[in-house]
Amino acid sequence: MTLPVAVVIAVSFAYLGVLFAIAWYGDRRARQGRSIISSPWVYALSIAVYCTAWTYFGSVGRASVEGVWFLPIYLGPMLAMILAWVVIRKMVRIAKTYRITSVADFIASRYGKSPLIAGLVTLITVVGIVPYIALQLKAISAGFGLLTGPSDPTLTETPLHWWQDSTLYMALALAGFIILFGTRHLDMTERHEGMVAAIAFESIVKLVAFLAVGIFVTYGMFNGLGDLFGRAMNDPAMQQLLRFDHGATPHLYSQWFALILLAMLSVLFLPRQFQVMVVENVDERHLKRAAWVFPLYLFLINLFVLPIAIAGLIHFGPGQANPDLFVLSLPLAEGARWLALFVFIGGLSAATGMVIVESIAVSTMICNDLVMPALLKTRRFRGRSGGDLTRLLKSIRRLAIVGLLLLGYLYFYLAGEAYALVSIGLISFAAVAQFAPAALGGMYWKGATGAGVLAGLLVGFGLWIWTLMLPSIAKSGWMATDFLEHGPFGLSLLKPEQLLGLSGLDPITHSLFWSLFGNIAAFVAVSLYTRASAREASQALLFVDVFDRRGGSEPVFWQGQARVDDLVNLSERLLGRDAARRLFQEHARDIGVASIDAIPADARLVQRVETRLAGAIGSASARVMVASAVDEEPLEIDDVMRILEEASQLRAYSQALEDKSRSLERATEELKTANQQLKSLDRLKDDFMSSVTHELRTPLTSIRALTEMMRDDPDMPAAQRQEFLTIIVTESERLSRLVGQVLDLARIEAGHAEWHNSDVDLYAIVKQAMASISSRFEEKGAALELCGDSRLAPLRADADRLVQVMLNLLSNALKVIPAGSGQVVVDLQENSDGVTVTVSDNGPGISKAEQAEVFDKFRQVGDRDQHREGTGLGLPISRQIIEHFGGRMWVESEPGQGATFGFQLPRNQQPVTGKPA
Amino acid sequence: MKRGRSSRLIALFFLGWLLFSFPLLALWDRDLELFGLPLFPVGLFALWAGLIIVLALLMERGDP
Q: Distance between CA A404 and CA A402 in Å, rounded?
């Protein structure tokens, strides 16, 4: 059951065409400034480039031999992503600030932009990553063979000559595709938006394809997970796959730990992971979501690994088919050819995604950190002024991509058949793990020096070659294996896989232990015994304290003389004319000058140009190029300290300025509220004044009118004169009462009133007030009653004031009750809070609208006749008094039902003084 | 607040590290079944899912 070769090839190329279209669209949108990758979901999916053909094919292969042991490779990234917000965010911030282009650039930039370190890291990467690329080629090639070849998966192919091998042509086709894909840009930048969009798409395809085959196998070929696992648990051989402990080897937990650690470091420092996670990051806040979505992706893509492995073992029988290809052979065996083709496309996604990003990242490193520094060394190249170098840079990268894929093919051709997919991948992981001490140490330890890094990398890389790389080549049959079994020159202590007699570990754990141990030991020891150069020290400050810097207070570690023209020329050579022009225009705008000619050639400009060039050719090469274009003074440690001090002083100044302006703002705000308060008080006062004058004028007017009439008419009858005089006396009394009350109210409101507090008995006070007003009630033929509690605990208050309040309430009631049938009831109630006094009348009552106004000054409700006796200030004053003692006053009434005025005085009163109404 | 999140993440990292190491991992390594499924792989995946959920809660809740 196979598919025609032409169909598989056509579909594969159609798929690559779709990828290309997505990348093209992504780039176009990026140029328009409407990025399609500016989303945490796209970012998380692009990080899933971690899942390569190794995951797609190799996990099942490993699971069918070692069971759950395929998992540590994904648990490591899970743990690493927990720290993404702490560690990766710092890497992203550093890379963005200094336009870091690759992991080699990152490490070299930290250690004084050293070309030597950049070159060494690149070299290690190339050597380490080639097997990994070979792995992808092997997976596609094997999958293609299975899909189109003999239907019996056990049949081995006859060896072919290299020129007959389709894998070679596939590698070349991929190289061509990647060149079209990644290095089309005219302007040289470190970011590739289209590529990221395509990679995110590939991540979806491979996940869907893998889940599809997982569901097909588990639920189509078998009766679900229970069925599969049930059969596995009844088979003693397969039972082992479901357990951690296979019982055979010691140090199992060390190996488990080593694999997790290895994967954890790889997810940070593999060139492709660094590329998508750090260099291509659009916004560091995207990390928030990606930190858990990426582990979730890994979780999903691993769900069906064990079921497929078990299904393959049951279906084909152990050792009968290549377990690496179970995902393809199982659907093929069931005749599901189109599903198999889809699964193959998923595998192609996984493999091409890895190869695309890895080769673009590594070709950038080769160009920037290996070839450029070598070119810069030649006198002819440096002397050549003018001439656009962007074409040269692009050619170097294209050649590097072709070279990488050919090297990958070579490794596949030489050693690929000897190893399973996972074993090849682990060799690469172990190489990349060597960057961890230099990079992580550099981010958190200012004392780390370039010499330490060089020593650490050399020791670690050397041990990796000796304990892992050479044995892998030897085991493939291309070297004599004597040294594996007996050690070099018969020195058994130096046996690569049992160094110093350390046995019992598997080769990966053994190599990882020795290489990382040697690496860290050399790195720390040499760092402690060497002094950092001025440039290293300055870069250390910039990297370790990257989160402390904000705004324009960043120190610029450069001194010397420069000319703007030289820098413009240099930028045009490396960036192209347009990009260079934009760079200088931006700088002119940022520092606030009109044109490029007006830019001062100061340290800040040099720094900006150097950072921008670093984005194109790497920080080490940019450093060399800038140094050759300007007249530099060497930087000493003292200069670094001085510049740092100036920067921190500047920062302190700006901090102080910020504080000042903040406190000014606060003061302004306070003044504004105070002013508003004053304004409203002023308005209140005006209202009050106009009310007072109005109230004063009414009695004055009548007094004046009556007296004028008496003066002008000497013959006025005595009776009428007597009547007029009575009115005048009443009005004068009202006037003086009014003036007295206004003064009283003003004193209370201003807090100037005198309070003679003593322990008072409220019952006695109510009695006293009632006694003094009882004659007036009798005159009107009204009944006045007192009920409620008579024995009250004493309250702390001013007795005279309370009598005043009671009199006011009683006289108000007296005014409204009908003559002859009036009835007023005073009630006293005591509870735990205090004492409540109510005065209820049987007058006409007060409507709801009037109730709201009854305590306002000069507001008198009811008939106009009754107004003549009142001033309109009695109730406001009473309320002020009650509130002074911490109590409250209210009115309850229904029209026609009479009214009840009441107040409550708390027992534990807290006098409120001078509180405005 | 930012410091709070970082500290919690670091604590979660060490918790995850311990859960996936000896001896906590050995607790799961038994010949037992859970709903007809083998305990050890199911336990590993369950721990994994739990870590993802806690991490998602930590990352998505509130701004630093």
A: 5
